[in-house]
Design a protein that fits this description.
heterodimer, A: nine-stranded mixed sheet, 28 strands, about 50% helix, elongated, B: alpha+beta, four-stranded antiparallel sheet, three-stranded mixed sheet, 6 helices, about 35% helix, Na/K_ATPase_sub_beta_sf (chain B), transmembrane (chain B), Na/K_ATPase_sub_beta (chain B), signal-anchor (chain B), membrane (chain B)
Chain lengths: ~1050, ~325
């Protein structure tokens, strides 16, 4: 039987041998990658230390040798002084937290990042200009000093703001990673002491019991039924038993080593600490993770690209006009001032802060939906994700064994594996089920921990191993109070499971008072159980076990095993009352009762079932064009079964092996083109060249990687990234953490996730719900679209701010808008509206389109820049100039009089400058008029920015399709614009330093027709885009 | 913009997003789960894909080149290659494209932008025309900004500090020339010929239509007496008794100054020179002047002088504006 089902890894109940057997083959290779990485790290001279640990030999040593090696005694332990010495030498038993960038460096980075450099240059130029001025004329005005200070202030304030935002999101994590200090029970000076786990040193003798986290890497010295959960290290959801025997060369496979941060599930053990802190296996993986460089997030690349564009435009226009100004015989000093003006006009000072706010708003929104974003920029990354590499255990699955199928009466029944088990629909009327349920209930040592009456059954804590827990909960849900049933059927004898028997047996009194017989129940590996049976129960009747029923059993067993499920067989026997009277004394050592010719009742299969939300989420990812790849440390069969059940391998697609099996031909003869899906093991992956991996990743749309090591996960992620894909990795275990770090976005599970995973990740799913990723994708895509709108909105007015300077230099008009006024637009009226665009709803179903290509679908593309700068921006500039000319003309300076007036206009000593009507103006009267011009120009831009804001709500749809009033925040933005402008003009109009004046009310309306024109023009643009998709217009006008 | 080069399926979809989705379909071909595209199409897409990548690189290289300029190039070969790709981007003889656009595409762009900017020009012309319709050619719509008149002095040469040495004519000659030039318009003959003699002490109100030409009141140079430059062509500068003319923008007495003569003696701007009806109709208007003849000023030190206008509707204490209703200058006469 065992030979017949070599693929079924999961028949193991809780034995010891099979795990060893199945792992022997690939176990060595499985962790080879890890070692390789360590060797690589050696080359990094900093990591030299790690290399020493490559050959962990402690599991091969005898206890005596160990004692010698570590200078300890397994009975008395270390002495306190020895321990203190070792602690001082080796450092505390804790993982070194990843190196944090010093706060000051983070702060300074904000000060010089983005546009800050440009503004610093502007400020410094201002001060230099003043210096020269001062050198020539001691009484020169301090204007340029003020401007320089204002620019510096702007940089510092936006820097502080960005720093604060960044710090805020980091703090969320800080609170997250704070853990309750772990305690360890250690023998020192021949006494048992409880010390903080941090103070453990090598050579310490520690005791652990069920429920404890193992406090360091320990070599086990004695064990009693000890089982550990290594899932965070290897991804296997099954508990691994531990003993003191050396069973495997590979330290990770041998049974006599317990690993730091894994959990002891049951039993007790005593062990000697052999590695602490960063030198533990977990510590090494963690440092592997920290060795992985973090790539720039896609949005950071986009913003950098955008900054380059804008800075390029600013600098080139600035320099161009500097040259023009100089060649027009302007003083170099004046030309420098122009240069500053052009830079300030071109740089959207408030935009980066806006982007930060927008991202953090989305991050908040996602946090409400249980997606905690650690790195703000990761908000968008999820939106551009094109491949999700998902871990299986704990991410796609519930990470707990659950009864999935039953087989009795020659029929396979499906059990409900959803999180609450609420909907068990299989036929429970058969007499066989009655017997089977009794065996399930009685032949089970697991118990609920007391005091959990109010907790839902599925959430109750159980003492017992995973399979028994599954059976207990299953029966509790269906039959009700299991403990009560057990009480009524008093247990008189029991043979617990052991690896040689591979079965578990117990004998009970029956709850039928008239029936004096004893009931013997047995469960175990199906083939073993079947061997002991001579009859089989069908429809409640015992029938002899003939070849046909045995065949049916095998078919069912193979089928369930093929689903990657762990199968158990159940049988019973009513002991005849005459031979076994009520007073019969059962002796489990001599086995004074029959253990053969039993009656086979049924099979039950268990699996770590997928989370119920996962299949739907995978489908959604698919329709959103995201490829979902499973990468797991678990066995290929289980992995494939889960992949099929969640839709990672869709129902109608086959692997090469499937086709080979169906056509009954060797695997080599199958054309690879026919298969859509592939299951690749770590072994196969190890032999692949990067090119082959690339081929694999492109050829198959549905891929499952099984039995992978942490290093291989990294290789897979890198392979995906070579395809220009944006890769998201989800995982919970320590073994996932390097891949989480390497991924464009690492997503860790909040509940099941290990701290290493959470630390390496960019995002944490607080509810462990894979479906939250879909929400994240949606939010990420929306934010990308909305950022486009925000940037388009912000860039538009830059032209309206820039043109005045150009006209001023070329045509010599009195300056239409001042530098300070520009700052009031960029950092005043425009801020709230541009944030408001982040609240815009999607124009279409963003989950039905493919993810953006990170190199082609840019945030700021040519159409966006051109349309903003050369279309709407120019229209805005014209509108604002109309307001400006109106103000000047009505005060006495007709446009014609303004041309080339600049020199006279700005001379302090000219106090009788004649206007178009012959009126004469003093210098201050002119200055005041100039400020009125600034205010007018400002109001002109502001009014048209309202129109700009409205048109930016959509990129393709008509505003009326989108709904003018659906996004209320937009209206808050518009109101804020108007109110800020009113305050600046009427409230602060008397503060001369701000260069605002009280503008006559009628001037507020001069730009309104232009605003309407902008709206109409944009509606026409969108109309043509919708009417003629794919046309020249669409390609050049859709941004 | 570059995208237009790409071959694509005929846009048969009337509305909506299908096209856009399709577009991305092409772009993201490689990642897609469903690979139902036909092989033929795939091949074509691949070609396009390559082309685009090339362009992308070129663009990037151009950027890089800009950035690297001045930093020195790694090797001349790499530089040459870069230059070549840039050059090819600027003008690709094979595909007859410049900046990744064909001539046809460029002309289409030029035509469209020509029409767009022409319409914008039309719009602004219309706006300016409307603006001119709303403002009067005779008087500005709002005048209260200049209502408190400013005061200026003559001679004025860039500075309000009068520094000169009596014994060195070079130091004051330019003042004399400036005054002479300024007073040409006030020559008696010219004034008598062009302007009318109107009654003093009252506003010279001229009713009638806005567009009628208005008469201007005579202000003869001779009113300025000793400061007219008629008797003393050096306006007193040669004797250290400089004349400074006070002019009110269209529309006085310190210890160091021991003696000032004012011409006209009233030391006032007569009402008859007001109101001013604007440049267009009030032709040949000459602003009234008051000459100050500093006959005895402390020599060899800077003497600050502040002249204030006094009268109804005159403001002379605006903090920010030192020329509204007053003028401050310094005299520093060396002997």
């Amino acid at each position: 039987m065992a030979q017949k089902t070599p693929e079924i890894y999961s028949v193991e109940l809780s034995g010891t041998e099979d795990v060893g057997k199945t792992d022997t083959g690939d176990g060595k290779e499985k962790y080879r990658g890890l070692k390789d990485k360590r060797l690589e790290l050696k080359k990094n001279h900093q990591k030299e230390e790690l290399k020493k640990e490559v050959d962990l030999e402690d599991h091969k040593l005898s206890i005596k040798e160990l004692e010698r090696k570590y200078g300890t005694n397994i009975v008395t332990g270390l002495s306190s002084t020895q321990a203190a010495e070792l602690l001082a030498r080796n450092g505390p038993n804790a993982l070194t937290p990843p190196k944090e960038t010093p706060e000051i460096v983070k702060f300074l980075k904000q000060m010089v990042g983005g546009f800050s450099i440009l503004l610093w240059i502007g400020a410094i130029l201002c001060w230099i200009a003043y210096g020269i001025q001062y050198f020539n004329d001691k009484s020169s005005s301090l204007d340029s000093v003020y401007l320089g200070c204002v620019l510096a202030l702007v940089v510092i304030l936006t820097g502080i703001f960005a720093y604060y935002q960044e710090a805020k999101s980091t703090n969320i994590m800080a609170s997250f990673s704070k853990m309750i200090p772990q305690q360890a029970l250690v023998i020192r000076d021949s006494e048992k002491k409880t010390v903080p786990a941090e103070q453990l040193v090598v050579g310490d003798i520690v005791e652990i019991k069920g429920g404890d986290k193992i406090p360091a890497d320990i070599r086990l010295l004695s064990t009693q039924g000890c089982k550990v959960d290594n899932s965070s290290l290897t991804g296997e959801s099954e508990p691994q038993s531990r003993s003191c025997e050396f069973t495997h060369d590979n330290p990770l496979e041998t049974k006599n080593i317990g690993f730091y941060s894994t959990t002891c599930l049951e039993g007790t053990a005593t062990g000697m600490v052999i590695n602490t802190g960063d030198r533990t296996i977990i510590g090494q993986i963690a440092s592997l993770a920290s060795g992985v460089g973090h790539e720039k997030t896609p949005i950071a690349i986009e913003i950098e690209h955008f900054v380059h564009i804008v800075a390029g435009v600013a600098v080139s226009i600035g320099i161009l006009f500097f040259i023009i100004a100089v060649s027009m015989k302007y003083y170099v000093l004046d030309s420098i001032i122009f240069l500053i003006g052009i830079i300030v006009a071109n740089v959207p000072e408030g935009l980066l802060a806006t982007v930060t706010v927008t991202l953090s708003l989305t991050a908040k929104r996602m946090a409400k939906k249980n997606c905690l974003v650690k790195n703000l920029e990761a908000v968008e990354t999820l939106g551009s994700t094109s491949i999700i590499c998902s871990d299986k255990t704990g991410t796609l699955t519930q990470n707990r064994m659950t009864v999935a199928h039953l087989w009795f009466d020659n029929q396979i029944f499906v059990a409900d594996t959803s999180e609450d088990h609420s909907n068990q629909v299989f036929d429970q009327s058969s007499g066989t089920w009655a017997s089977l349920s009794k065996i399930i209930t009685l032949c089970n040592r697991a118990e609920f921990r007391p005091g959990q009456e109010s907790v839902p059954i599925m959430k109750k804590v159980v003492v017992g191993d995973a399979s028994e827990t599954a059976l207990l909960k299953f029966s509790e849900v269906i039959l009700g109070d299991v403990m009560e049933i057990r009480k009524r059927n008093r247990k008189v004898a029991e043979i617990p499971f052991n690896s040689t028997n591979k079965f578990q047996l117990s004998i009970h009194e029956t709850d039928d008072p008239s029936d004096k017989r004893f009931l013997m129940v047995m469960k175990g590996a199906p083939e073993r159980v079947l061997e002991k049976c001579s009859t089989i129960m069908v429809n409640g009747q015992e029938q002899p076990l003939d070849d046909s029923t045995a065949e049916a059993f095998h078919t069912a067993y193979m089928e369930l095993g093929g689903l990657g499920e762990r199968v158990l067989g159940f049988c019973h026997l009513y002991l005849p009352a005459d031979k076994f009277p009520e007073t019969y004394s059962f002796d489990v050592d001599t086995v004074n009762f029959p253990t053969s010719n039993l009656c086979f009742v049924g099979l039950l299969s268990m699996i770590d079932p997928p989370r119920s939300t996962v299949p739907d989420a995978v489908t959604k990812c698919r329709s959103a064009g995201i490829k979902v790849i499973m990468v797991t440390g678990d066995h290929p069969i289980t992995a494939k079964a889960i992949a099929k059940s969640v839709g990672i391998i869709s129902a109608n697609s086959e692997t090469v092996e499937d086709i080979a099996k169906r056509l009954n031909i060797p695997v080599e003869q199958v054309s690879k083109r026919d298969a859509k899906a592939a299951v690749v093991t770590g072994m196969e992956l190890k032999d692949m060249s990067p090119e082959q991996l690339d081929e694999l990743l492109t050829d198959y749309s549905e891929i499952v990687f099984a039995r992978t090591s942490p290093q291989q996960k990294l290789i897979i992620v890198e392979g995906c990234q070579r395809q220009d894909a944006v890769v998201a990795v989800t995982g919970d275990g320590v073994n996932d953490s390097p891949a989480l770090k390497k991924a464009d976005i690492g997503i860790a599970m909040g509940i099941a996730g290990s701290d290493a995973a959470k630390n390496a990740a960019d995002m944490v799913l607080l509810d462990d719900n894979f479906a939250s990723i879909v929400t994240g994708v949606e939010e990420g895509r929306l934010i990308f679209d909305n950022l486009k709108k925000t940037i388009a909105y912000t860039l538009t007015k830059n032209i309206a701010e820039l043109c005045p300077f150009l006209i001023y230099i070329i045509a010599g008009l009195p300056l239409p808008i001042g530098t300070i006024t520009i700052l009031f637009i960029d950092l005043g009226t425009d801020i709230i509206p541009s944030i408001a665009l982040a609240y815009e709803k999607a124009e279409s179903d963003i989950m039905n389109r493919k993810p953006r290509h990170k190199k082609k679908d840019r945030l700021v593309n040519a159409p966006l820049a051109i349309y903003s700068y050369l279309h709407i921006g120019l229209m805005q500039a014209l509108g604002a100039f109309v307001v400006y000319f109106t103000v000047y003309a009505q005060e006495g300076f007709r446009p014609s009089a303004l041309i080339n007036l600049r020199v006279e206009w700005e001379k302090d000593s000219v106090n009788d400058l004649e206007d178009s009507y012959g009126q004469e103006w003093t210098q201050y009267q002119r200055k005041y008029l100039e400020w009125t011009g600034y205010t007018a120009f400002f109001v002109g831009i502001m009014i048209q920015q309202i129109a700009d804001l409205i048109i930016r709500k959509t990129r393709r749809n008509s505003i009326f399709q989108q709904g003018l009033f659906r996004n209320k925040v937009i209206w808050v933005g518009i109101a804020s614009q108007i109110i800020i402008a009113l305050i600046l003009s009427y409230g602060l109009g008397s503060v001369s330093a701000l260069n605002f004046t009280m503008l006559r009310p009628q001037y507020w309306f001069v730009a309104v027709p232009h605003a309407i024109l902008i709206w109409v023009y944009d509606e026409v643009r969108k109309l043509f885009i919708r009417l003629y998709p794919g046309s020249w217009w669409d390609k050049n006008m859709y941004y | 913009m570059r995208r237009q080069l790409r071959s694509r399926r005929a846009p048969a979809f009337p509305y909506g997003y299908r096209y856009r989705l399709d577009d991305q379909d092409e772009v993201n071909q490689n990642y897609l789960a469903d690979e139902e595209e036909e092989a033929e199409e795939e091949a074509r897409v691949m070609v396009v894909h390559d082309l685009e990548e090339e362009e992308e690189e070129e663009e990037k290289e151009e950027e890089e080149k800009e950035e690297e300029e001045g930093q020195g190039q790694p090797t001349s070969n790499a530089l040459w290659q870069k230059l070549q790709t840039v050059n090819e981007y600027l003008w690709d003889p094979e595909k007859r494209m410049s900046l990744a656009r064909t001539g046809q595409s460029w002309s289409l762009i030029l035509v469209i932008y020509f029409f767009f900017y022409a319409s914008l020009a039309a719009v602004i012309t219309l706006c300016m025309y409307t603006l001119f319709l709303t403002i009067s050619p005779y008087m500005p719509t709002f005048t209260e900004r200049v209502k408190p008149p400013g005061v200026m002095i003559r001679p004025f040469a860039h500075s309000l500090n009068f520094n000169f040495n009596v014994s060195e004519p070079d130091t004051w000659q330019h003042y004399v020339i400036s005054l002479n030039g300024f007073l040409q318009g006030y020559n008696d003959s010219l004034q008598e010929e062009m302007n009318v003699d109107c009654p003093p002490g009252q506003y010279f109100i001229q009713d009638g239509n806005e567009d009628e030409d208005k008469k201007a009141c005579q202000f003869k140079r001779s009113f300025l007496k000793n400061c007219s430059g008629l008797e003393d062509p050096t306006f007193g500068y040669s004797t250290g008794q400089p004349c400074i003319l006070l002019k009110m923008n269209r529309r006085g007495d310190e210890n160091d100054i021991r003696s000032i003569n004012y011409y006209p003696e009233s030391a006032s701007f007569d009402l008859r020179y007001y109101p001013y009806y604007g440049k267009l109709t009030h032709v040949n208007y000459t602003s009234p002047l008051v000459a100050m003849h500093f006959t005895d000023v402390v020599k060899n030190q800077a003497v600050p002088v502040q002249c204030q206008l006094k009268g109804k509707g005159i403001i002379n204490d605006v903090i920010n504006d030192r020329f509204v209703g007053r003028v401050i200058f310094t005299l520093n006469i060396e002997t």
